[in-house]
Specification:
The chain has helices at 2-7, 10-23, 32-42, 45-68, 70-80, 82-92, 96-108, 113-119, 127-161, 167-205, 217-229. It has 236 residues and is mostly helical. It has one domain (10-202). This is VTT domain-containing protein.
Length: 236
Amino acid sequence: MRWEATSFGRPVLALVLVMSMSVFPTVFLPSFPSMWLTGIIFGYGLGLLIILVGTGIGMSIPYWIGSLFLHRIHGWLEKKWPQQIALIKLAGRGGWFQQFRVVALLRLSPFPYVMFNYVATITQINFTPYICGSVVGMVPDALVNIYSGRLILALADLKYDQRRMTTVEIVYNVISAIVAVLIGVGFTVYARRALDGIQSAESAQQPEPAVVPAVATSELGGDRHRSSSSVPVDVV
């Protein structure tokens, strides 16, 4: 992070951060250090835009790569996360908004971020609702990572300036940390409940198999007897 911050100007650094957030998820590397540095250098406004652009590209590349190796990863993913895969498949059979909503909720849920980029390819979810839902679902996580970067910057300033926090700074940072945790937990709980509701609704809409009533053998025998007795016999 220090090397990136000191080696490039702001425009080049923004491009480097976008590239890192685009490539790292593709190769299963965490991109949150780049998000922290984005918060440190660019703050909330421009930092949020940079993160959404970088993660948007980083969520698109695995989608298209995964589509090339669909049959190889399908069975392994269903064994690893059977419940989540079943839910994504249900969303794939819905309309545009249904796919968008489920993708956004899964981004808010604890489902592994990097793995979901590849999981979406084994369903019928189209790319447009996938990327739109992914970007919307990433907004809370991006804001929390930007806040984490700003907090790291504040703590670093205290260390290098060799001073202590004032009472106001301590109260502000404690309240901000509590709010960030509550936001993360709140979105996670909401996403889980919403996904459970969607899954329950989809299960309730599935038609029950028709039950064919069994016919007693005695009734079948009586029907055969009546049918045979009603057939006229021609005598030549």
